[in-house]
């Protein structure tokens, strides 16, 4: 008789966004005349930039001709894309990352979930609280997180690093020593970020205790301030302790087309085993590559036209962020984020819980956001709004919140 992976049975109830989806569906069914605006799930709304569309069309035509047709992609991804990444995202920023340390994939969610596979089940993970749920849940599925306590919303074998107003939503070094540290800056959900000096402290710490940092830089393109690192490899010593995850979803609108990459430097070792070899082995065995067409589209992200168009696109969303942040501030809300990230993190008024505020906003303003408590216990009493809507909807949503 077969048995299931009962680690899955330890996972807490429904996924945050399914619960939100259900509540919104039920509200709409009961109130069909109401028009609901979503500033909830972190998905983009602007179309792909013209340079990307042009590259897509060109690549589709190549697939129609036997002379230019492409089958399986090379294991690590096409060289034209890895070279463009190595130059633009690393060399141009003074980071030493070679093209063969870059693994192209179909997105950072899969990579952030799969990367734990190359580590021992005995490793202990440390995560920010609140956190992007993928890091914790995928470790739970692998059996690395102990048991889940419903009352506290915490796993017994996970080190939680609270990110609160007191520490400006950046974690302090944990008291208990972890083996794997997940960091994401600019952060989802808080929109907070970290200075280069602060990140250097983490790199030094990881090198000292022999931990690996999994650095999720999905929102790097939204950085507007000077002293904020675009890559962890801007820090001295990161090549021996850090893996970096990047996505084309938020900087270039690839949430539906799917493209990302993971950097594993060859200096990152456990004894004499390179993590690079393990990830290469996993990639080669379990993955057959992002589509050629999409990798060509990814290359266009780094063209002069692509860069210019995407700067405007990110600017569009960041104007929404500014509108939300300043609007809420003028209404007396306590807000953070929204400067180097497309997320606004607000404190719920009058000590409401995150879900109470969610219900109020849905029912009285017909605006959907994301309850902070869904990202971890320290998110209780907070609420996330995203800048990924249209400008018109963003302005309309704020007007409704103002009239609450
Ligand atoms: C959106 C997001 C990603 C990107 O996921 P993709 O699979 O590349 O679309 C990764 N990490 C965080 C924290 C995100 O919010």
Explain what the structure shows.
Helix content is about 35%, strand content about 15%. It contains twelve helices and 17 strands. A hairpin with a 5-residue loop joins strand 13 (about 335) and strand 14. Helix 2 (about 50-65) runs antiparallel to helix 9, helix 4 (about 110-115) runs parallel beside helix 5 and helix 10 (about 305-330) runs parallel beside helix 12. The longest helix has 27 residues, at about 305-330. It is globular. Pyridoxal-5'-phosphate binds near residues 184 and 250.
Low-pLDDT ranges = none
Helix/strand structural class: alpha/beta
Beta strand count: 17
Order of helices and strands: HEHHEHEHEEEEHEEHEEEHHHEEHEEEH
The ligands bound in this entry are:
pyridoxal-5'-phosphate
Mean pLDDT: 97
The general outline is globular
Helix content class: 25-40%
Number of helices: 12
Q: First CA to last CA: what distance?
A: 57 Å
CA radius of gyration:
21 Å
Strand order of the largest sheet: 2-10-9-8-7-3-6
Largest β sheet strand count, sense and barrel closure:
7 strands, mixed
Beta fraction of the residues? Answer: 5-15%
